[in-house]
Every structure is written in structure tokens, then in C-alpha cells.
Amino acid sequence: MPLPPDYHMHTPLCRHASGEPVDYARRALEVSLSEIGFSDHSPMRQDDFDDWRMRNDQLDEYVEKVRKAQRDFPQLTIRLALEVDYLPGHEDWIRDLAARHPWDYFIGSVHYVTDSWAVDSPAKLKEWATRDVFGVWSVYFERLTKAAETGLFEVIGHADLPKKFRYRPTRDCTPLYETFLTAAKKNNCAIELNTAGLRKDCKEIYPSREILQIAFQKGVPITFGSDAHAPEEVGMNFADAVQLAQAVGYKECWRLVGRRREVTKF
Ligand SMILES: [Zn+2]
Ligand SMILES: [Zn+2]
Question: Mean pLDDT in the chain?
Fold first, then answer.
């Protein structure tokens, strides 16, 4: 079986990734991928919101970088996408972004649980020690649920990102997962198996097997992503991700073309 598409990778425009899209494309062919998608961190309406994404005036440059990779590697299918931060109240901005280019898909990701704290930020790691861990996870999954309900995203990114630094609640989170995954199913929204978690302190794919099991029971579709921030990370640990997906029962994932969903086997 061919490897599933790698739909999550970045470019230097986000200021914390290295290598040009052409380098990612070359690597994709080396690891026998036949389809990839660039989904760099989208700009915020305010460029000074934080310092780990492209600016508004770089969006055209981003698209041109991806187009160049498409021209240089015609033997590889390359999709144009964004990883869009979901914060409540940003819906109109996300619709504005959607209208600016012919995107193949949007990954909706929650990093921020307040307007100033991204739970995965190494610079803000100390924040965790001041917070109730279950409280953070609750807000995180509430925002993830809202993101799915907006209908603005084909895919929800790294669904249990708060585990990155191993701050895990002792309380049972199953009801949080259930609510989120019910919303994902109802709104025809996939979740991604994101292998970047294996490269972080949590040493585990996002999301956990437990969440993926509930997702499968509810019929929530999946995609795959390496979340590569460097060319050598493209397709990384995809065999593990495929194995995990198959172990809970998945045989199919989505391909995304012009914001339409297609089912494919892996
Ligand atoms: Zn990033
Ligand atoms: Zn992310």
C-alpha cells in the first residue's frame, strides 16, 4: 500500500522552520511519498500577535514558494494549505484568509488557550506550573470543539497538543474527547495523526490511541501529518502512524483537493 499523504509541513516564513518547499518536496520523493501538502502557520490579522508565523504581506510569497515546488516536482502531488490558529472570535479573519487563494484545505489548530498563552510554547513553559492542568485541557478541548463546529476547517490539527510537555490531568478526560469528536463527526471534519509528538517530550503521536479509538467508533475521518519544520522530518514515523491507525481499525484516510474531501485507502 502507498504511504498516505503528508499534509502538515512548514516553511521558513513562520520563522521557526528551515528549508524551502523544494527541499521538502525532494525529501518527500526520497521517502516514497506521492502526495504532500504545505500547511504553514497562517498570519493573524495583527502581525504583532506573536512571532512564530508569517506576516500578512508574506502570504503571496508563501503561495509562490509552494507553486515553485509544484513546478519543479511535477511527479509529486503538492497541495496548498494553511495551519490556521483557531481562537474564538477569529472566524471572520479565517474567512478572509480562505478567500485570498485557492487553498486545498485548512488545518484548524488550537495552540492558544488564552489570547497570550500557547500551550506548546517552550518560551512559556513556566505557565504550566501556575495552572490547573485539567482546567487547561478542558479549555483546550472546548476550543477544539468550537473549531470543528465553525465548519471552517477540513482537518483539526494535533488534537491532544497539551500533552507535549507531559502535563497530563489525573482526572478522566474522556467526556472532553467525546464532545469534541462528536462535533468533528457532525461537521465532516477529520483529525490528523501528527507524528511530531514522537519528537517531543511526550514521545507519542498526536492524538493518543485512546482518542483515536473513540474517533474510529464515531466514524471521524483521518489525515496524516509529520508537522515537518525541516526537510528531513517529512514523512517521519509514518510507518508508526499507519500502524496505529490500522490497529484501531482505520483503513482509509482523506485526500483534500480544492477544499473537497476524497476517501483513499492506505
Ligand atoms: Zn510550527
Ligand atoms: Zn500546530
Answer: 98
